[in-house]
Amino acid sequence: MSDSPRIVIVGAGHAGGTAAALLRQYGHHGAMTLIGDEPLEPYQRPPLSKAWLKGEADGDSLRLKAPEWYGDNGVDVRLSQSVRAIDRATRTVSLGSGDVVSYDVLILATGARARRLAVEGVGLNGVVTLRTAADAEVLKAVLARQPHRIKRLVVIGGGYVGLEAAASARSLGAEVVVVERESRILARVACTTLSTFFAAYHRQQGVEFILDAAVERLVGENGQVAAVQLADGSRLDCDAVLVGVGAVPNDELARDAGLNCQDGVLVDLAARTSDPAVYAIGDVTRRPMPLYETLMRLESVPNALEQARQAAAAITGRPAPESETPWFWSDQYDLKLQIAGVPVGCTDIVVRGSATAPGFALFHMAGDVIRAVEAVNAPAEFLAGRQLIGRRAPVCRERLADRATPMRGVAL
Ligand code: FAD
Q1: Which residues are within 8 A (CB) of 113 and not within 5 positions of it... i.e. 6 or more apart?
Q2: Helix, strand, coil proportions of the chain in percent (round to 5)?
Q3: What tens-digit pLDDT sequence spans the chain (412 residues)?
Q4: How far apart are alpha carbons 281 and 394 in whole angstroms?
Q5: How far is the CA of 186 from the centre of ligand 1 (A)?
Q6: How far apart are CA 139 and CA 52, in angstroms?
Q7: R_g over Cα of the chain
Q8: Which residues contact residue 128 at a Cβ distance below 8 angstroms, ignoring those fewer than 6 apart?
Q9: 196 alpha carbon to ligand 1 midpoint, in Å?
Q10: Phi and psi for 237 in degrees, rounded to 5?
Q11: Per residue in 194-206, is it b (16+ CB within 10 Å) or e — as a string?
Q12: Cβ-count burial of 36 within 10 angstroms (0-12 exposed, 13-18 middle, 19+ buried)?
């Protein structure tokens, strides 16, 4: 390979866009092509369910870089173009347009897509998922205020995206019902105490929850969704349905090309796949987590950024970046939830503050070591917790539980 390999990045999202910028920052001067199937340059998705949905942010503020940055920095951006196949023998990718692009190094950053709900009626107008700016545009239009008419949104799935959209819809004046299959919201991603807190907070804001519920079908009138029919016979009339039942990795390209995959493209800590000429970053990957001695698929901006750094460093011959403690955030109403670490192998939870009012943190413990922290409007606890998790430092559980003891005083 020459000093300036031709780099092709497939997927112009948060990970792909960041990798392009970092490669230039790290001194890669060679040809670079960024191919994305959406019509927009790389943008941030988090605001789509938050500020942007509420009309508090404009389209430009979503972008990672101004559109002219790509031309100015010699990045050939091909938007609204889908990569259909990778030929690893000839080191080429084929686009839906028929174009074939050669690479020396390929970066797969194809992200994940919203999981579909397999029930009758999902194709009706007014039934949306929330993954792209185009999806958010549709949801925003459905929720737009009309004089003398209160809109009713049913959210199927009580995960982060569904709850954030529920909070935004409430602030737009809509009625919101969340239908959840499990017996609690956030069942897959948060502990019971946190679920209980968030459910109570949403109820105070007027959101209704229907738990342990199975959706039977979506009922339409003249092609427009009019109701959600549940298996117990109840019918929820509505103007729109948001399906928020998780995401699946877009790893088909990699699988078809014979790369090792396991619900996500398998990569190492340099973001390298089973082919040394191919890297994969972001939501599409299943990656090693040294702190937890396991592989995980993470769907978060910090993960996309970390893996973009790993790949850009490896490609440009820089030292590998230090491994990070995973983290994530979610904004709902005036609540900022910040989570660091993953509660793997935990024995119990230490609660700091009262888990009934904002300003508390839940520390997931393995003995005296913090493995994960869930902090609600408690940034100091989140930051210190994240550091302690990374250092695997033992802490004094009594001091940790005592809000009067500063977080810097909890390590043993
Ligand atoms: P994406 O940003 O999804 O980008 C992948 C891109 O590749 C997409 O544009 C896709 O269309 C394109 N693509 C796929 N296949 C092809 C192909 N064959 N050819 C060309 N292009 C292709 N994370 C947080 O940390 N905090 C939050 O608060 C938060 N909120 C979120 C709210 C919403 C509504 C959503 C949807 C996500 C949120 N996330 C949040 C998650 C975060 O946005 C993702 O983890 C992040 O976008 C992952 O980046 P990525 O580049 O891997 O994937």
Answers
A1: 131, 247, 248, 250
A2: 25, 30, 40
A3: 456 899 999 999 999 999 999 999 999 999 999 999 999 999 999 999 999 998 888 778 899 999 999 999 999 999 999 999 999 999 999 999 999 999 999 999 999 999 999 999 999 999 999 999 999 999 999 888 777 788 999 999 999 999 999 999 999 999 999 999 999 999 999 999 999 999 999 999 999 999 999 999 999 999 999 999 999 999 999 999 999 999 999 999 999 999 999 999 999 999 999 999 999 999 999 999 999 999 999 999 999 999 999 999 999 999 999 999 999 999 999 999 999 999 998 999 999 999 999 999 999 999 999 999 999 999 999 999 999 999 999 999 999 999 999 999 999 9
A4: 32
A5: 20
A6: 11
A7: 22
A8: 135, 138, 139, 142, 240, 241, 242, 243
A9: 28
A10: -70, 145
A11: bbbbbbebbeeee
A12: buried
The pLDDT of residue 1 = 46
Q: Distance of CA 200 to CAs 161, 325, 362, 363, Å?
A: 18, 29, 17, 20
Query: Residue-wise over 387-409: b if at least 16 C-beta within 10 A, else e?
Result: bbbbeeeebebebbeeeeeebee
Atom of ligand 1 nearest to the CA of 281: 52
Indicate the top mutation candidate among 43, 110, 265 to test ligand 1's pocket, ranked by most ligand atoms within 8 A of CB. Answer: 110
130 touches ligand 1 (CB under 6 Å): yes
CA-angle at 164, arms to 163 and 168, nearest 5°: 115
| Atom of ligand 1 minimally distant from the CA of 327 | 25
* CA-wise closest residue to 242 among 345, 387, 127: 127
Question: CA-to-CA distance for 41 and 59, rounded, in angstroms?
Answer: 11
Ligand 1 centre to CA of 41 (Å) is 13
Chain centroid, CA 304 distance in Å: 9
Cα 314 from Cα 23, distance rounded (Å) = 10
| Alpha-carbon dihedral angle through residues 384, 386, 388, 391, given to the nearest 10 degrees | -140
Q: Give φ, ψ of 332 to 5 degrees.
A: -140, 125
Q: What does the buried/exposed string (b/e) look like for 51-88 if buried means 16 or more CB atoms within 10 Å of the residue's CB?
A: bbbbeeeeeeebebbeeebbeeeebebbbebbbeebee
Give the DSSP letter of residue 319.
P
Distance 111 CA to ligand 1 centre (A): 5
End-to-end C-alpha distance for the chain, whole angstroms: 51
Residue 83 Cα to chain centre, angstroms:
22
What sections of 46-152 are H helices per DSSP?
A: 59-62, 67-72, 133-143
